[in-house]
Design brief:
With about 80 residues, the protein is mostly helical. About 65% of the residues lie in helices and about 0% in strands.
């Protein structure tokens, strides 16, 4: 999984270097981009929560940990990507 994060960081740095070489600003200020990513995560995980509330099933910490522990920021690496 470390390889996945490293590649992501490298590509982000590369994109920043290209923007600097072309003397252009990034499409969105960093804080706006981070808020947008946070919104995407919240939106993606809101559907299972809403479904559970509509079904009047209990929403507790145990369910939350089971439902989201592996989903939020801990995506397994694609096949062939070895963890370091």
């Amino acid at each position: 999984m470390l390889k996945t994060y490293s590649v992501s960081l490298f590509v982000g740095i590369l994109a920043g270097l290209i923007y600097a070489l072309l003397d252009v600003n990034s499409p969105a200020p960093p804080i706006v981009a981070l808020v947008g990513l946070a919104g995407m995560q919240m939106g993606e995980h809101a559907i299972p929560l809403i479904k559970k509330i509509i079904k009047r099933e209990p929403v507790n910490l145990h369910w939350f940990r089971h439902e989201y522990k592996h989903n939020i920021g801990d995506t397994p690496p694609p096949s062939g990507d070895k963890t370091s």
